[in-house]
From TrEMBL:
Protein's UniProt keywords contain Disulfide bond: no
GO molecular function annotation: hydrolase activity
UniProt KW Hydrolase keyword: yes
Name this protein carries in UniProt: Glycosyl hydrolase 115 family protein
Organism: Asticcacaulis machinosus
InterPro entries reported in the protein's UniProt record: GH115 (IPR031924), GH115_C (IPR041437), GH115_sf (IPR042301), Hex-like_dom2 (IPR029018)
Length: 918
């Protein structure tokens, strides 16, 4: 299928004779089988960028553009790219009478305009003039995006589609400067994807991540408008500067190189520090050797564009060796800064404060900083999140005033305790958006770096982060809006909303618990799998999760079946593999756990569940093999279904139990509680103790059975789960089920809630945070267990529980006296800055305000559970809560606090893992 792309509007065509006459014009880049030429400034980097544009034009048109550094090769229409003050652009600007002075001294901006030479009015130039090299590149990238080329055209095989004609607007436009100055990625934990793929598939001559691989990554960064890289640095990978050509290809792509929080002075300590030759990596006992080591690299890289990490940690991602206390480490760091800055000044032959430097306050370095570490004013403070998506703290007003400013280091992939998440890239976009919104509001916009792991399968999250970094206006969009627009550009508008909805559900399920966390174990030290909390109340929560994943998979597979052939590979990589992988791992774990629970109850479905769990694991194996075999093995070695070989990924034993066949038939209708007026679908289970049987449902009222008859046999474990839809009406009756000679009556409950209040369902009343409003709070869209949460506004000062502030007010009604646990569920964020706390005031039925402190410290067990569940909980116990109406008031006390819901658990209520059904 071929398309015609035309992006035109009323513009001013700038000519030497007349610069004011407005004309409606479009610039044809491909028509009548002729494609535009690409003329570039005589510059190696811009020559590469021009080649990228030409390659995209070839992919779109089937015609190969002429690429040249001479305007003489322009016949009718050509794209001209260059620095605003280059000889090429200056001559064109002078001839056509345009003024490019506004670009002088600007960071990464460009002007695009159609111009016509007075010397040859038959030739039209589409000029892209950059304030600097990268500004010019972003102009080229914006043009290719307009033409329909995805940033993922190579890295996720979103193949450009052929067109019959191409044209773009010739209107004059000047881009804004990027919102964040340095925007980049960190290749990390590459041992199970990127490195083996590069070594065995893409760059077999180097057998590692070398210049060919980095060139591909740098081109992707161009397409994502990123400019900064922290290179791969694990033991599995040879250090960046030890592979010939790596540094040069970074220079040729105008990429600013840096190093991670653990690698000061552009050094890879893991592979570069040789203890046999250099001694211990201990500044206190081996200072001269360490300083020489730093000096060598400072001199080696002096001619490249770098962003230097300064400071000192251990040889790898560990605390400083030899320091016995944070204060001793602080004093050593003060000396280290002076030494390192002296080395940089000497190598660069300019004052140290003119050499870009960062200090990443990661792990113990933050503790050292908080003891009063004096960081030079020009050094950028990089605030990390806690490895699980929550920024530890941001700049106080005093820190915001520092010359070097601040930035953030963020993860969508992580190796470490309490558990890795290296497989499927499930960090919720709504959390990323919220954390980057607070980052922006707190003026940490000098540098944003994202730990992307192996790049794949974190493609969307990487683009989302970098889109926000380049243009903060993206933060104003909801995550679903951005995801839908992204999906439309990859797969077309017709499927975009469904894909965005599928992926949102995928992230929502992982928000409750990531696939990698489902085994219940932890790491560092590695601990064995545990029976899931999802079955601790009998199994209803486990089945609900299995059902959600099953429906999600069905919808994703339906979209895949409807997509054209040229999008099948991309959809598998970007959507279907992650969805099916998460669904299959959850099914394997939960069905084996259910089988263990049901075996104790002598349920006949246990062997079928074990077999289904085995089939789920095999689907992961098969899908992973499919991924790596795509496009004749293009991605061979990229996808590993069990990174770091943790117990959650191990294939388990699939037990079988001897079944004693008995006659009879039973139903489980414990899920059939409905709230009047709320149409919803629930599940009824029909089963026998191991004998085949037919069943038929009849006589139901206000409910619709998805199927009214069925057969129980060995293939389905002598059990069927039937979806039942309640229509929201005033009455409901489950009718009867005839099975194995018995007539069974489903127990159906219909409860009613007072207007504006929650209903009591299974002894729980659950109040959603956003069901109330107060001036100190703002809604965070799509975040939390209920699809939105409340955040205390970031400009609200911390206050005391006695301050006069309008509370959130929640009301509920109980029908009987009961003991109650009132669970206040928040998100496990950290205090906004070092000057803030993390408190909430709660008042029940007009009593005293109780101040609840949600702050956690270090890597405590509470913190670990908070990270694994994305919750922070405080519980207020109320003895003999009276019958009737009740009020809970919630007072904002500290900025940035995020409030999710309140669960009022009356005595006898199940201790659920996730959020109760409303």
């Amino acid at each position: 299928m071929k398309l015609s792309i035309s992006i035109a509007m009323a513009v001013t065509l700038v000519t030497g004779a007349n610069t004011n006459k407005a004309q409606a014009i479009e610039i044809p880049l491909f028509e009548d089988a002729t494609v535009t030429a690409v003329i570039h400034e005589n510059d190696k980097t811009l020559s590469t960028a021009a080649d990228l544009l030409a390659r995209d034009l070839t992919s779109l048109t089937g015609q190969t553009p002429k690429v040249s550094s001479s305007l003489r090769n322009c016949v009718r229409v050509c794209v001209v790219v260059g620095h605003y003050d280059s000889a090429l652009v200056k001559s064109l600007a002078k001839d056509s009478g345009i003024d490019l002075a506004e670009l002088k001294g600007q960071w990464e901006r460009y002007k695009r305009v159609a111009v016509r030479s007075k010397r040859d009015p038959q030739i039209t130039y589409l000029l892209i003039a950059g304030s600097d090299t990268r500004g010019t590149i972003w102009g080229i990238i914006d043009l290719t995006r307009e033409l329909g080329v995805s940033p993922w055209e190579w890295w996720a095989d979103v193949t450009p589609r052929k067109v019959d004609r191409l044209s773009v607007s010739g209107d004059a436009r000047t881009s804004d400067a990027p919102s964040v100055q340095y925007r980049g990625i960190f290749l990390n934990d590459e041992d199970w994807g990127l490195q083996p793929w590069a070594a065995k598939t893409y760059e077999r001559d180097v057998k590692d991540i070398g210049p060919k691989t980095y060139a591909r990554i740098f081109e992707l960064m161009w397409r994502l408008k990123a400019n900064t890289m922290w290179p791969a640095m694990h033991d599995s990978t040879k250090p960046f500067y030890q592979i010939k050509g790596n540094a040069e290809v970074a220079r040729d792509y105008a990429i600013v190189m840096g190093t991670s929080h653990a690698e000061p002075m552009m050094r890879n300590n893991v592979r570069e520090w040789d203890e046999k030759k250099r001694g211990d990596f201990n500044f206190f006992t081996n200072r001269d050797s360490i300083v020489k080591y730093w000096a060598e690299r400072a001199t080696e890289v002096k001619d490249f564009e770098n962003l230097y990490t300064i400071g000192l940690r251990g040889k790898h991602d560990s605390a400083m060796e030899g320091a016995k206390t944070p204060e001793e480490a602080r004093d050593a760091l003060t000396q280290v800064f002076d030494i390192q800055r002296g080395l940089l000044a000497k190598a660069q032959k300019k004052p140290a404060d003119q050499v870009p430097q960062v200090l990443t306050l990661y792990k113990e370095v933050l503790d050292i900083y908080m003891t009063g570490l004096n960081v030079p004013e020009d050094v950028t403070l990089v605030w990390p999140e806690n490895n699980y998506g929550y920024i530890n703290q941001l700049s106080t007003p005093a820190e915001q005033a520092r010359k070097g400013g601040a930035g953030v280091y963020y993860h969508i992939s992580y190796w470490g305790r309490p558990h890795d998440y290296l497989w499927l890239a499930t960090m919720h976009p709504a959390l990323i958006r919220e954390q980057m919104d607070r980052t922006n509001q707190m003026k940490a916009n000098r540098i944003w770096v994202l730990n992307v792991g192996d790049i794949k399968p974190g493609e969307y999250l990487t683009q989302y982060f970098l889109d926000m970094a380049f243009d903060h206006k993206v933060i104003a969009e909801t995550p679903h809006e951005h995801l839908k627009a992204w999906a439309a550009k990859q797969f077309g508008a017709d499927s975009a909303d469904e894909i965005a909805t599928i992926m949102t559900e995928f992230y929502d399920l992982a928000w409750e618990r990531k696939p990698e966390f489902m085994g219940g174990g932890q790491t560092e030290p590695t601990r064995p799998n545990l029976i899931s909390d999802y079955v601790r109340t009998g199994g209803a929560e486990a089945w609900a999760r299995i059902d959600r994943y099953s429906e999600l998979t069905r919808r994703a597979e339906a979209v895949a079946a409807a997509l054209p052939a040229d999008r099948q590979d991309a959809f598998f990589q970007l959507v279907l593999y992650p969805v099916r992988g998460a669904a299959s791992l959850n099914e394997r774990i939960l069905k084996l756990d259910l089988a263990a629970v049901y075996a104790k109850a002598n349920r006949a479905n246990v062997n079928a569940l074990s077999d289904q769990a085995k089939a789920a694991h095999q689907r992961i194996v098969t899908d992973t093999a499919t991924y790596n075999a795509q496009l004749n093995g293009k991605w061979h070695g990229m996808m590993d279904q069990a990174p770091r070989r943790l117990p959650v990924f191990d294939e388990p034993i699939y037990p079988h139990w001897p079944l004693a066949a008995k006659s009879g038939c039973s139903i489980d209708s414990s899920d059939l509680t409905f709230v009047k007026g709320q149409a919803v679908t629930r599940t009824l289970t029909v089963y026998t103790p191991g004998v085949p049987a037919q069943w038929t449902a009849s006589g139901q009222n206000g409910m619709g059975f998805a199927t009214a008859t069925g057969e129980l046999n060995a293939a389905n474990g002598f059990e069927q789960r039937i979806k039942i839809a309640y229509d929201g009406g005033a009455t409901v009756n489950g009718g009867s089920i005839a099975c194995a000679g018995r007539t069974l009556k489903p127990v159906v409950k219909l409860v009613e809630a007072p207007a504006g209040e929650p209903a009591e369902v299974n002894r729980i009343l659950s109040l959603t945070a956003t069901s109330a409003k107060a001036p100190a709070w703002e809604v965070v869209p799509e975040l939390g267990s209920r699809g939105s949460a409340l955040r205390v506004k970031l400009d609200m000062p911390s206050t005391t529980g006695k301050a006069k502030i309008e509370p959130l007010v929640y009301r509920f009604t109980t029908g009987a006296k009961a003991d109650a646990d009132i669970k206040i569920v928040a998100l496990p964020v950290h205090p906004l800055t070092s000057a803030n706390e993390l408190r909430l005031g709660v008042r029940i039925n007009g009593g005293p305000v109780q101040v609840l402190d949600f702050e956690t410290f270090g890597r405590s067990e509470e913190w670990k559970q908070n990270m694994l569940t994305n919750t922070a909980v405080r519980t207020i116990q109320v003895k003999q809560l009276a019958i009737g109406a009740h009020t809970i008031e919630v007072f904002a006390m500290d900025p940035g606090f995020i409030f999710d819901r309140i669960d009022v658990r009356l005595d006898g209520a199940a201790n659920l893992y996730g959020a109760p059904r409303k």
